[in-house]
Amino acid sequence: MRIADAQVVVTSPGRNFVTLKLTTDEGVTGLGDATLNGRELAVVSYLTDHVVPLLTGLDPHRIEDTWQYLYRGAYWRRGPVTMAAIAAIAAVDVALWDIKAKAAGLPLYQLLGGASRDRLATYGHANGRDIPELLDSVRQRLDEGYPAVRVQTGIPGLKAVYGVHTTGAQGERVLHQQTRPLVEDWDTDAYLRHTPAVFEAVRAEFGAGIPLLHDAHHRLTPIQAARLGKDLEPYRPFWLEDCTPTENQEALRLVRRHTTTPLATGEVFNTVYDYQTLITEQLIDYVRSAVTHFGGVTPLRKLFDFAAQYQIKSAIHGPEDISPVGMAAAVHLGFAVHNFGIQEYSGHNALTEEVFRHAYAFTDGHLHPGEAPGIGVELDEKLAAAHPYEQTYLPVNRLLDGTVHDW
Ligand code: CS2
Ligand code: MG
């Protein structure tokens, strides 16, 4: 069997997705997600101009070798185009696993060691501009069956904050489709004062039993993160995510010294070296990388096995900007690895579900990969073509004095 064709499909069924479709000379196809939210076209170019020309004629069964060929063969790494390169390599990797599993007539998880559980526990996003709106949103997620909920709210005095949907004049949710980044505002002190009150209100309303997660989204200094972790301890969070920009891995040594609140990070990481200190010094409890942004199933499985030696668990990134192709790969991998922790799952809008028909199923707050051969996703190319790319940016965050801050 040889790779005969490679297509890069860009579609925007409500938000942009970049998908790689490989076709072998025996007609077996494979899909991979290459979506990098807000910088999609960089990956399209990396794939189209630099990777696709190398793929035709390769043996699709040589997944490890192809990964090494594309990663080491580029020479340049962990630098200016890393995330685009890694997302591109991830798409090839997942498409090759899809092909291999389809050729074997098996769902991908069977090639990864088989099922280690019957279903995957998930967490959903609850948010509100204020605490009453958040409580309603938590109730909705619990009614949908989510066993765990991430809580995010607006901050008194701030007009637009991460995780709280910006609504348009008609109250519609403003997505990221616009020609310039939305500008959000931030006041760390107000946030640090407000967040414990949010947890207190959610605990008072829903009790101590529900796992509550929170994402600080890279915004705190280490000592501020330590403060928040400590202040949330009475409410026993499931985790505090991205509490400080963890490119500075040593920062979490200080946080760890002050709080027992579990820590999660890694959605913006792209190689194991980004985690090395965090894992070997037990500075985190969950690794957050997505298949798409960590180079594919091949390297992410290795990361989970490394993390397992330190009792650190998986928590694959799963917001709506991970396409159903990336989500399918995540569910297969999460189903097979022993140190599964939890799976983030925001779901996708109806049109996206039509463009990417998938075998994985979300039932009573849990995911199952399904038994379809491969990753179990079919791309409706005609419908995809009917929704072309739309310029989009992630928001930019500024402090009240106008200084740019982490978003
Ligand atoms: C967030 C993401 O889900 C999360 O944990 O950090 O929604 C993140 O903001 C987006 O993926 C950025 O594209
Ligand atoms: Mg996050």
Walk me through what this model shows.
Helices cover 36% and strands 18% of the residues. The protein is built from 13 helices and 18 strands. The chain is globular and about 60 Å long. It folds into two domains: 3-107, 2-Layer Sandwich (Enolase-like, domain 1); 111-371, Enolase-like C-terminal domain (TIM Barrel, Alpha-Beta Barrel), CATH 3.20.20.120. By secondary structure, it is α/β, with parallel strands linked by helices. The strands form four sheets. Strands 4, 5, 7, 8, 9, 10, 11, 12, 14 and 15 form a ten-stranded mixed beta sheet that branches. The longest helix has 23 residues, at 82-104. The structure holds D-mannonic acid and magnesium ion (MG). Residues 37, 215, 217, 241, 267, 319, 321, 344, 394 line the site of D-mannonic acid.
Which features does this protein show?
single chain; 407 residues; alpha/beta; Enolase-like, domain 1; TIM Barrel; 10-stranded mixed beta sheet; 36% helix; 18% strand; binds D-mannonic acid; binds magnesium ion
